[in-house]
Amino acid sequence: MDLEYSPEYQRFRDEVRAFLADEVERIPKRGLSETERPGPAEIAWQRTLIDRGYASRTIPRVYGGHGGEADPLKSAIVSEEFAAAKAPSGFGGSGASMLAPTLLEHGSEEQKRRYIPPALTGEEVWCQGYSEPGSGSDLASLQTAAVEDGDDFVVNGQKIWTSAAHLAHMMFALVRTEPDAPKHEGISYLLIPMDAAGLEVRPLTTMTGEALFNEVFFTDVRVPRSNVVGARGEGWRIGNTTLRHERNMLGSASYTEALMTRLQRLLDSETSDGIPAMGRPVFRDRFVKLQARAWTMKYHAMRLLTCTLRGESPGVAGLVVKLQGCQLNHDIAALAIDAMGELGPLYYGSRYERSHGAWQREHMLSLGLIIGGGTAQIQKNIIAERGLGMPREPKPAAPAGGV
Ligand SMILES: Cc1cc2nc3c(=O)[nH]c(=O)nc-3n(C[C@H](O)[C@H](O)[C@H](O)COP(=O)(O)OP(=O)(O)OC[C@H]3O[C@@H](n4cnc5c(N)ncnc54)[C@H](O)[C@@H]3O)c2cc1C
């Protein structure tokens, strides 16, 4: 097996590295922020990345993308080099990575032209309105209702855990339009302006101490019928396209590799009684075990890349990336915190905290990502049933005489 890149791709890697070195002053200091919308500097950076084909590479020019050929190896190189340089590569957020590919597949021409270009640059921020208080893993049981009235739908109900709703201009949402249809067939995919009358966003504080997600309430919110994506009642199929793109986004071997490099630096520099943490067998043993998992993830990513290059679908093997990646990031951050000893639990502005609390934040956020986008347990069920051919989970029996 030859794991080396060909000279053409090596040249491309050199070009990306040189770009990051030349632009080092312009690289935005913060990544996609959960507290602020992208500003002019971030939007300009994103435009540069699109122009050079480092972001939105295959999205046609007419919709604001780079308009290039798909080249999974180049995409992998960009992702590795940006992660290594800690340079943010995506200010478009869920609009660019989830909504845009969904609209390309299912949207009308008008929807593509109107919504994709500002979603790619981050000028228009999107949020995802799927989960409801009673509908998370069993998403198809969602109850938020959209009833047709003239040229509009009138939406009533509630969404929950909506990341970035407090920043968003628009929401892509799943709503029930056919209450009498079987649950998977009664759902539509609706684009909802967040400034619509009757829509209220209430923040929810996470364990990081920040209000990163929200509850969203709809009271007689009017949304034009033309904002339905695809056919009415087809939302389940379309919503699953978005979920596929979300899972591809969560978990990345390059990100984890970069995290391991930072962990190694920390273990070499953090000392107690004059001995670096890496010199202590307990920490070194944990580090080596994590290294083995990170390398396994890297080779798994290469296997998926090979599938893509051969035009084959990796099937459920793709789900392993999110499942393993988020758990591994969480475990890497746990070792970093332990290695800091009594400084480990410090957070939020303590003058003794290391790396501005980045490890503590990684530890808490990665725990959230093990749940978000479909929990680890649900991913394991899918991999077991659809990938390994194991028997389906028994469904709980309906209560006697009940629904
Ligand atoms: C950081 C974060 C960001 C999020 N952002 C968004 C967002 O932007 N938009 C949005 O719509 N949602 C968002 N979510 C919500 C997320 O999609 C849901 O939390 C997730 O789907 C789980 O649903 P639930 O919380 O209702 O848990 P439940 O579905 O009630 O599950 C509770 C527990 O039971 C387990 N469980 C459930 N069913 C099964 C089963 N069949 N077999 C085995 N175990 C099972 C689950 O794994 C879990 O451990 C976010 C969540 C997090 C944590």
What characteristics describe this protein?
globular; alpha+beta; single chain; 3 domains; Butyryl-CoA Dehydrogenase, subunit A, domain 3; four-stranded mixed β-sheet; four-stranded antiparallel β-sheet; 403 residues; binds flavin-adenine dinucleotide; 10 strands; 11 helices; Butyryl-CoA Dehydrogenase, subunit A, domain 2
Provide an overview of this structure.
The structure is a single chain. The chain has 403 residues and is α+β, with helices and mostly antiparallel strands. It has helices spanning 7-22, 40-52, 72-84, 93-106, 109-121, 235-249, 253-269, 281-309, 319-339, 358-371, 376-387; strands at 126-129, 145-149, 152-163, 170-176, 187-193, 199-204, 213-224, 228-229, 271-272, 275-276. The site of flavin-adenine dinucleotide has 20 residues, from strand 1, strand 3, helix 10 and helix 11.
